[in-house]
Write a structure and sequence with these properties.
The chain is mainly beta and about 350 residues long. It has one helix and 25 strands. Strands 1, 12, 13, 15, 20, 21, 22, 23 and 25 form a nine-stranded antiparallel beta sheet that branches.
């Protein structure tokens, strides 16, 4: 993340500094579990049966079936319906008519509609066959990612079974399950906090990209915040949460430009910038907290190396606030739908630097 690494002068003693950096180069390995449905007579069904259990939080990436032999009698009047649930929510489902897969051919049960299975959870399989539908033995293959192994260094808040998908050296945040809803949200934070204080410089940076699926409807933010719970980004374009401590660059639905907020409890300053947010290119966002006096700090906000300018007067955005009441903060990327269209944010790098 060369473009996003800060250029501050306070680097004279590296032993006094803490740096937490992730470029997501290590893509998590997907794992597989299987369950074999025995060869039965025509019309045999399988009542909901537990086929997978987990003691850790996992993300189901895909569910496939693979016959060990050839099916017969599957047609439009004698279908073979396969449904995988977590006991309550449908994870994947598919109904076969004349298209049941051939011997040793793998076939997906479709898009994962509800993928996150919490620790202690399970997957259940139910199969309903028409009277002449005669299946061979069939293996069910479940592909999943261990979220605790991969995301133990992260904190993820998702209100509608949103997902964190890794590919190459990026992760993509999606706030919704298969059905996108207005105000679905997801927050992805480094599991590392810093408390702004006297004699301490703090820099948080991220390299992100998003192009709004619904014009000006996304709510997107990056920066430092003390509270990662639901509604960090308020519903309906309400901006960053009105409590706790936050130092963030953000955009709300209905607008197109970046805003900045500095908040410690009830002490809050917000500024609208002149810079349009989003687009097809990655952008380097940076929040810098620098001490002015032992009692006060200045928060500055940069995008692609330039300090954001205030739309009201054209001056660089700079917020001054006292340290009194400031809480420990996480570096976080936040996303909330501003409509029933699913939005997404790609993260290339996350970075946190502070003096001890």
């Amino acid at each position: 993340m060369a473009n996003a690494v800060p250029q501050t002068a306070d680097y004279e003693s590296r032993a006094r500094h803490v740096e937490v950096y992730d470029d997501f180069a290590a893509v998590p390995v997907r794992q597989r579990a299987s369950y074999t449905l025995a060869d039965g007579a025509a019309g045999d069904d399988l009542a909901a049966t537990i086929v997978f259990t987990t003691s850790r939080r996992v993300l189901v990436n895909g569910v496939h079936i693979m016959p060990d032999g050839s099916a017969a009698g599957v047609d439009g009047s004698n279908t073979s319906a396969w449904t995988v649930t977590d006991g309550t929510n449908t994870v994947a489902t598919k109904t076969y008519t004349t298209n049941f897969p051939a011997d040793s051919v793998s076939d997906s049960l479709g898009t994962i509609a509800y993928g996150v299975i919490e620790a202690g959870g399970r997957l259940e399989l139910a199969v309903t066959n028409g009277a002449t539908a005669d299946l061979p033995a069939v293996r069910l293959l479940i592909e999943y990612t261990d979220l605790e192994a991969y995301c133990g260094r992260y904190t993820v808040t998702a209100t509608d079974d949103g997902t964190v998908a890794a590919a190459d050296s990026t992760v993509t945040l999606a706030p919704s399950d298969a059905t996108a809803g207005d105000n679905d949200e997801i927050y992805f934070a480094l599991n590392q906090t810093v408390t702004p204080a006297a004699n301490k410089t703090v820099v948080a940076a991220a390299r992100i990209q998003y192009a709004e699926a619904n014009t000006s409807a996304a709510n997107v933010a990056f920066g430092l915040t003390s509270d990662l719970s639901a509604n960090l980004l308020a519903d309906n374009g309400g901006g960053v949460r009105a409590t706790g401590s936050s130092f963030m660059i953000y955009k709300v639905d209905g607008e197109t430009a970046w805003r900045c907020v500095t908040r410690i409890g009830t002490a809050v300053t917000t500024s609208l910038s002149t810079l349009t947010a989003g687009g097809s290119d990655f952008a380097d966002l940076e929040v810098v907290l620098s001490e002015i006096t032992p009692l006060a700090l200045t928060a500055t906000y940069r995008v692609n190396g330039s300090t954001l300018s205030n739309a009201a007067n054209g001056l660089p955005i700079s917020h001054r606030v006292t340290y009194s009441g400031v809480a420990a903060c996480y570096p976080v990327v936040a996303l909330k739908n501003g409509s029933t269209t699913a939005e997404a944010v790609v993260i290339d790098d996350l970075y946190l630097h502070y003096t001890r």
